Amino acid sequence: MEATPQRVLVVTPHPDDAEIWCGGTIARWIKEGAQVHYLLCTDGGKGSDRPGITSEELAATREQEQLEAARILGVKAVEMLRRPDGALEDTPDFRKEIVRQVRLVRPDVVLTTEPYRMNLSWHRDHRITGQVTTDAVFPYARDHLHFMELWREEGLEPHKTGTILFWGTERPDTFIDIADTLEQKIASVKAHRSQMADRSEAEIAGFVKERAQEAGAQNGCQYAEAFRQVTFRT
Questions:
Q1: Alpha helix stretches (DSSP H) within 162-200
Q2: Domain map of the chain by residue range?
Q3: Which of 61, 137, 142, 158 qualifies as a FRET site for 205, CA 20 to 30 Å off?
Q4: Residue 227's beta-bridge partner residues?
Q5: Residues 110, 125: Cα–Cα separation, whole Å
Q6: pTM
Q7: Average of pLDDT values for 115-141?
Q8: What CA–CA distance (Å, rounded) separates 185 from 224?
Q9: Fold of the CATH domain 7-231
Q10: What pLDDT, on the 0 to 100 scale, is given for residue 72?
Q11: For the segment 46-72, what is each residue's pLDDT rounded down to a tens digit?
Q12: Phi, psi angle pair for 113, to nearest 5°
């Protein structure tokens, strides 16, 4: 992408997914004047192998970690649906929640997780989030006869989003240079301490840099993030 979008919505399944996959892009766009909003779909309450911790305790911890990570990147707002981790389904009410946020934020670009991976394992919540977000953007948020109550009762008019960028794709075609925001991305990933407890700070930084180098090598950058782009006629 050559132009920096002005308004961005990030639809992320779990706390830490956005920072790991697109934290550098988010930080870069914010520095260039973009306004970025998060929609966090689940509470992250299953993502631990620590004995004795409850889902409720973990969810509360991860919520605070997500808010700190978003603060580090400069995200304007984090909306949390708090749906149970591992229980996302393609349902009208989930679709409506995403449509609501699309119509509220009115993004130029939506960032979310790739729903279609053939050769690599992928968390079910990621697949569902990517698919439902795609449908919410097109055609549900665009067409006024879908979820008319959002317009009539909440004043949220239809919105046409121009582009979705999918992270975690096997077929990237869009690369964002993140050399200038790599350290900010690393700091945001470190904020998710409950997920990084078995890694030292140096190991976290090495992990993030290695992935950014792999993406950059595909497009002549030192450090990059990779996406599959879908563009809609607006």
A1: 182-190
A2: 7-231
A3: 61
A4: 174
A5: 17
A6: 0.96
A7: 93
A8: 11
A9: Rossmann fold (3.40.50)
A10: 98
A11: 988 788 889 999 999 999 999 999 999
A12: -90, 145
C-alpha span between 151 and 145 (Å, rounded): 10
Plot region of 168 (φ>0 → left; ψ -120 to 50 → alpha; else → beta): left
Q: Which residues pair with 221 in a beta bridge?
A: none
CA atoms of 163 and 60, how far apart (whole Å): 33
Q: Compute the average pLDDT of residues 169-174.
A: 96
∠ CA 174-74-107, rounded to 5°: 55
Higher-pLDDT residue of 2 and 47 is 47
Span between the terminal Cα atoms of the chain, in Å: 17
| Strands 163-167 and 224-231, sheet pairing | antiparallel
Q: Tell me how far the alpha carbon of residue 146 is from its chain's centroid.
A: 24
Q: Which two tokens stand for residue 43?
A: 């509470």
Beta strands 109-113; 163-167: pairing state: parallel
Task: Report d(CA 144, CA 151) in Å as an integer.
Answer: 8
What's the whole-number mean pLDDT along residues 182-202? 94
**What pLDDT is stored for residue 51 in this prediction?**
83
Structure-block tokens of residue 200? 């030292």
Fill in the amino acid letter for 98: I
Determine the pLDDT at residue 112. 98
25's tokens: 């892009």
Give 162: exposed, middle or buried? Use CB within 10 Å, 0-12, 13-18, 19+.
Answer: middle
Rounded distance, CA 69 to CA 67, Å?
Answer: 6
Helical H runs in the chain?
17-31, 55-73, 92-105, 124-135, 148-154, 182-190, 201-217
Rounded CA separation 46/79 (Å): 20
